[in-house]
Structures are given as structure tokens and as C-alpha cells.
Amino acid sequence: MAVLLTGCTKRADWHQKMVLYFDTPNGPLTASSVIRVDFTGAMAWAGDLDHDHTDLTGEAVVADLGGRYLFALIEEDAGRMIVRALPPDKKGQSFKSTIRWIKSQTEPLDLPMKLWPRMVTYKDVKNPTSVELVDPANIAAAFDDGYSLSRVTIQVTEEPLTKGRVEAVLISDFFKDGAAMRKAALARGSNDKFFDSLAAELTRNKFIREE
Questions:
Q1: In terms of pTM, does the model score above 0.85?
Q2: SS3 letters for 57-111?
Q3: Is the pLDDT at 126 greater than 80, yes or no?
Q4: Rounded distance, CA 28 to CA 24, Å?
């Protein structure tokens, strides 16, 4: 992990681990993923994140819940999660001191539900249009009674990036099929009903970010 300060532009990177804690009919279960965050910030630091930029590398969290899969997506603000979870006494500090705090956060930090990523599942992992949003407060509605999500944590880690878990679940042509559906819908016109669907929004980079 490195920190580089150049003029008014500030840069830092770290490996960020997210862990989801489930209760299931067969007992507790966890699922996790490690992504790399490359942060670039302007003079406005923690006070105004609109001027900051993060590049992300890694994969969504994949959880096997009784033979069906839950995916915790990689959203655009994933790299800011640990910053947004700063304790009140850490907010408003300098870039350098904030990064020092982030890099020291190697123990799990509970994320409030408002910061949890969107979660989805597929009725058929071969069909991109079978996607459904999962309510993290009621995952039993998407799965079965006895399943619940009790906790989500985030931390900095030296663990390597997670690789291969998404593509181990979704068929090799899954994202190609989704792109083909998007292309066909564009050919029909920008008002095509496909663009009103969740499937239209869930491109490959919601699941896998590469350098």
C-alpha cells in the first residue's frame, strides 16, 4: 500500500476486504471479496467527495445460499466506503492523517446498512434477464426462510485480490449474452423496454473490475 502526494493532487491505494455474515438453516456462513482501491483526490478531501476519483480492481462478493447465489455488487462508491465509515472524530482531518487511519484499519469495521452495496440474485444463472434485487434486510424473500444477513464489515488487508469466483458461478458467455441483448435493444431504439430493466444496468463491471 502506498501514499503519494503531488501538488494539489493526492493519491493512495489499498486492498479492501468486505465480509458478509449470514445466518442460514445450516448455521452461520460468511462470504468475502478483496478489491484494490486506487484513490485520487483533489484539494477538497473528506469534506467534498464529489471531486475525488477511485479506480477499482477485483470482484463482487459471491455467496452460495443453498444452491442459489447472492452477489454484492461493486458500485462506483465502493472505494469510498471505508472513508464514509470514518468515526466522527476522524472526519475533517487531513488527507495524510485520514490515509494513516485507513491503512491502520486492519480489523473489521462494521458498515451501517445505508452503506451496504446493492445485492442481486439470478433465478437462472444462465439468463441475465432473470436477475432480481435482494433486500438485505429480508433476504429470505429472495431465498428461503432461515436465511438472513446480519452484518457487513470492511477492512484494509494484505490479502491478494479475489479472482475467479464470479466466473465460477456465471457461465462463460454470461456477460457476452448480456452485451448482445443490450446491443439488440439499442438497434430497436433508446426507448426499448429492455432499458427499463435491472439487467440492462448490470454490465460486467458491476461484477468484475480489471486493471
A1: yes
A2: EEECEEEEECCEEEEECCCCCHHHHHHHCCCHHHCCCCHHHHHHHHHHCCCCEEC
A3: yes
A4: 6
